[in-house]
């Protein structure tokens, strides 16, 4: 489930190269046989592609090379072609390619589409020389060494060290610790991570990558989000803070040419390990950048939001990542082979989630079983939240994330806030949020997410800022002047800088739900006003309109018209706005509800409704009409049984009016003049989230007989003013 840097790149590279092999039409007057060359610009690196085409009785065959990945003579698969149009798709990898051959056969032009990403591909007859970030170029500039670093308890962690050949000056160290395989292929093989971060190799940073304890080639036992041991009494009391400390200490003492300064960075799970590196940090650690850091797997990250189980991500991730290696090994575990090409149908057919483990996991995935054994917010979950230890921080910190990160948005925001609230003002604590999906900020360009375009490349400013951060604290370059919060405001699509986050110059307002599907800034004065509908867990509301296997990255900006047309989704909207309204900071849903059942989930969605005459941008590949588009700005779920306490769930009293109040992650969005603000409320979000049976039972153990329809009411009357609290930027 997690988008790792390596796996993300390889999926795109592998599939994109496959596409190229079928971009060649037949012509009686021209030949497409022979060699074609191009560059695949994937994320922040450029990869050379060579395609070798032969004609056969049945059409054409081809093989391809990716010399920058040391991949050669790879056979291609299938295609559909009617000159000059070409299309190719691969259902297993989930991509589609469409392209054209120019009339003079001088080039093959096409677009590769996968997971919301659209990457242009152009092939010509001219060979292309290695780019500065290619493996060949890096080998001319860097040496690689693979070592085992011994921790204080004797466990050895596998580590790859890339050092610049230039020894005329000393260089800082950038450390990335990961559970996702650092590719130990010997000193002649340079992994994909080094290529991605070429902006650092250009300045001769020493790059270090390490398999964390118990993963791939490292020794020891792996533990998911391993808790910090606050009081360590012996060398046997180890956690990720001690492993980081011991690693840094060894590097400083044993890597020639280092300047005694270390930076730690990482995205997602490696972001969690970056946070760990800031706790009781080694004196040499001067800068830490947790990016989309895993922070709370019960309250807001990845696998639970407000106690609701994110079954689609959890199942996919732990099926391939939840198994343990008995001994160090490079061997990974296979991804799940879906029996049907529709995750909605699959999870509905599974029935109660208790059926998953005996059918697909057994006892092989420890964390899956741990999650089921701890349905409420108990000490198991509390111990795995690092925020309680983010005190007395000594390195400078830059926390980074995306407004449309489906995985660790909560962790990003609340990690920054924990550093800010638990340390003196003297701590350099920087917060950066852009219009990105999970990890998008680290690579290449970020010009859109799904159907929504930002009118700029949001990554250009960020890459410069990240580099300046590490350059200052590790090399001593620059003036060290950084804004506290560098924020991309969607809607207006501009970067802004703030002295604090949330900004100080805001006005707190309430968007009150009103009769007849209206929204007002003034509370309702009528009595006896509510909306009533039936929620059926056997027909849950889907989280997105299309049919697919893997959770999409663009669902957080998807058009919500499909949901607004369902009878079990309540819709409220403002009149057409007469001026721009910019919201910055957290949202608070405050609902007054009743249910005929004894439990219920509540999903609140904040939506930007575009004017009916909104044009589609020329660069939009899949022409979804933007006139009337209902853009999801933020959506969040809350498991109603936790309305009083996450520790002690409580049943609803059937048909009794009760308050459900919860925080929704921050936004930074401008609702422009001529648009409308919409709020949608529903009771399911499937299969993003598991189904609530709407009966107060242990959902992890309940049976099919426990699932029941429920009559739901949303109240908007005097005394019960359901609303969404927002912060309006002045």
Explain how this protein is built.
The protein is of the alpha+beta class and 730 residues long. Among the domains are: 5-124, Lipocalin (Beta Barrel), CATH 2.40.128; 506-729, Galactose-binding domain-like (Jelly Rolls, Sandwich), CATH 2.60.120.260. The protein has a 10-stranded mixed sheet with strand order 10-11-13-12-14-15-18-19-22-23, with helices on both faces. Strand 7 (95-101) and strand 8 (108-114) form a beta hairpin. Helix 5 packs across helix 6 (269-278). The radius of gyration is 26 Å and the shape is globular. The chain starts with a helix and ends with a strand. Residues 1-29 have low confidence and may be disordered.
- What is the fold-level CATH name, i.e. the topology of the domain at 506-729? Jelly Rolls
Helix fraction by DSSP (H/I, runs of at least 4)? 10-25%
Would you identify the CATH architecture of the domain at 506-729? Answer: Sandwich
Q: From the alpha carbons, calculate the radius of gyration and give it in angstroms.
A: 26 Å
**Strand sequence of the main sheet, in spatial order?**
10-11-13-12-14-15-18-19-22-23
Distance from first to last alpha carbon: 39 Å
Assembly state of the chains shown: single chain
CATH class of the domain at 506-729: Mainly Beta
Supply the helix-strand structural class: alpha+beta
Unreliable segments (pLDDT under 50, ≥5 consecutive)?
1-29
Describe the largest sheet: 10 strands, mixed
The fourth-level CATH homologous superfamily of the domain at 506-729 is Galactose-binding domain-like
Structure annotation, total helices: 14
Mean pLDDT: 90
